[in-house]
Specification:
The protein is mainly alpha-helical and 124 residues long. 76% of the residues lie in helices and 0% in strands. The chain has helices at 2-83, 99-110.
């Protein structure tokens, strides 16, 4: 009578061992996923910061380039006004990085003479 009790205890031990191992494996797997998720979030945050820095650097470079180009255009316009007759000289544009300055340029463009304006007929 002892053998069936031993076999039943053995089978019960195997079943309980399997259930406990499965529970611990799920917890361990969940911990691994949490660590991987945290690592991915950290990498995403670093990438966002790198992209932000990249655009800041390029913005500064473009602002400097715009400033230098404006200086060259100003010198060109001054030389052209000095050396050429006034009616044949078309001044170079000044680049702006400010919306207010852009609006000012738009107003100046609207005040051009009719000979400087190209009229497009949408019917043709």
């Amino acid at each position: 009578m002892e053998w069936p009790l031993v076999v039943a205890t053995f089978v019960l031990g195997i079943v309980l061992g399997y259930v406990i191992r499965t529970i611990f494996a799920k917890n361990h797997e969940s911990n691994d996923k949490d660590e991987a998720l945290e690592q991915t979030r950290l990498e995403l945050s670093q990438h966002k910061q790198e992209v932000t820095d990249h655009f800041e650097d390029h913005y500064q470079q473009l602002a400097e380039l715009t400033e230098q180009l404006n200086k060259v255009n100003k010198k060109w316009n001054e030389a052209a006004n000095t050396l050429a007759p006034k009616n044949s000289v078309k001044p170079l544009a000044t680049l702006t990085s400010d919306k207010a300055e852009h609006a000012k340029q738009q107003d100046q463009a609207n005040e051009l003479d009719s000979q400087d304006v190209i009229i497009v007929n949408p019917n043709n």
